Amino acid sequence: MKFKGKVWRFGDNVNTDEIIPARFLNTMDPEELGGHCMEDIDPEFAKKVSKGDIIVAGRNFGCGSSREHAQIAIKGAGISCVIAEGFARIFYRNAINVGLPILELRDVSKISEGDYLEIDLDKGTIVNLSEDKLYKARPLSKFIQEIIKSGGLLKWIKSKGKKNAK
Amino acid sequence: MAYTITEKILLAHTNKRSVAPGDFIYARIDLALGNDITAPIAIKAFESIGAKKVFNRNKIVLVPDHFIPAKDWKSADQAKTLQVFAERHRIKNYFEVGRMGIEHALLPEQGLVGPGDLIIGADSHTCTYGALGAFSTGVGSTDLAAAFITGRVWLRVPESMKFIFYGRPGRWVGGKDLILYTIGDIGVDGALYRAMEFSGEAIRRLPMDDRFSMCNMAIEAGGKSGIIEADAITNKYLAGRRLKVKGVRYRSDRGAGYCKIHEYDVSKIEPQVSAPHLPSNSGPVTRFKNVKIDQSVIGSCTNGRISDLRIAARVLKGKKVDSRVRLIVIPATQKIYLEAIKEGLVDIFVNSGGVFSTPTCGPCLGGHLGILARGERAISTTNRNFRGRMGHPDSEVYLSNPAVAAASAIKGRIAHPDEI
Fold first, then answer.
1. Reduced to 3 states, what is the DSSP secondary structure of residue B200?
2. 0.90 exceeded by the pTM?
3. B398 in contact with A, Cβ within 8 Å
4. Is A161's CB within 8 Å of B26's CB?
5. Residue A136, SS3 per DSSP
């Protein structure tokens, strides 16, 4: 899978209350949730994002609640991929399970808001087209890759789940 | 091979001969939990892939507690999904308004979780049950849907961190203070992906409710789970209820591997307060004495248990809440609600000028029943103080134990209980 998009930069410890505040958790509609994505950090965020854009953040992205509304909101806003120096664990597994592409990059400081990135998810490479630089993301474990290749957890349990049930 | 308690429980839920940190396992679960926010997505996913049957109707628990009693019709619709699903699949452990409670206080109270269990819940504070010597962790709705079908969950075996607490705590210091202090020390990602094992003489003396508060907030340090070995205090707690689970008591082996060991002298820890907007911004309450408050919330899955209410009542007895402060007390379950009435605690709260609510997560996550206005500030016994967590993005939440929250309600500013 390959993506190309514009970067929106965020800092460390972006939490799920910021990604999608609890006052909007009485719906699971992607468009509605997407319209409020990151609202309390930047009220204009959802309006400014174009389809395919990329979020780049620091450490511990997605800390806090287990709400999968966070992944639904990010996808609903049109974001194609999240790159961070690290992810909180429930956010990480939810992204894998629902098929929101994520990449861990040791140092994101060279990437600025507005840069254009080209991402090759299979190779784990990130090309910064604005800076003409290549970054290598931390490789995903084989087990996680298997879930992603199946198209998410529910498809994985249908195909491989039984085989792996030992 | 020497194992930690966490590794032993995980191993016992696979058919493997051994496990090591970093291994991926596809483990059997003893219980899967969902609430009115996370279960609707799981149910939708379950139905969308054409699943017809749940793996075991006795191992699923559904608790509408977040926006319940329903705050608006959309929330009512979501809660209704749980009721309909429970009925269709004959899930006994569905808890309707009037019988429900905040999930992480309710499940232990009902005897649905016990030592040695592997529990997953689509709620980040599912780590609470580690206080009983269980492996318990928060997952998402898709994990929950998969668990409904297969009775299994994929997990990466976590490295364990050991926290040894020794010494005797001061009068107003409880489990909440120990965990806020710990998170302040290691940071909000200090235990990322890891199991936090709490041990030492101070933990062995710590009452059960305080142990729940500690394990509850393991997630606030990024932890996968918090865990305390079952002991005489655990056994006493479990004996008081009709346990619906088997209960296997595991202990960490001598020589088990820990990626890090922290030691704390609890006699040096003052009541803690965590300043906005991260739980790791903790420090002694005295540091925050000039901070004025508009609201004090006593409740939640962290501190809405009967001993929390007793402590708050001890501080509030015969006193009045500051004229410009709202005190909101929320018992975590119906049983706690009744106990609070019987013990005269409700009289104390209401006579002091506070309100006493039906059980709900309510204001903790900015749902309902005490949302902050722009620029307002609350002290709260809840677990998160992220920006906008309890209301307007420009409001603030300070975290504390129930005694500090009660004392602050009286003073109208953050206060040490000794000031009352």
1. coil
2. yes
3. no
4. yes
5. strand
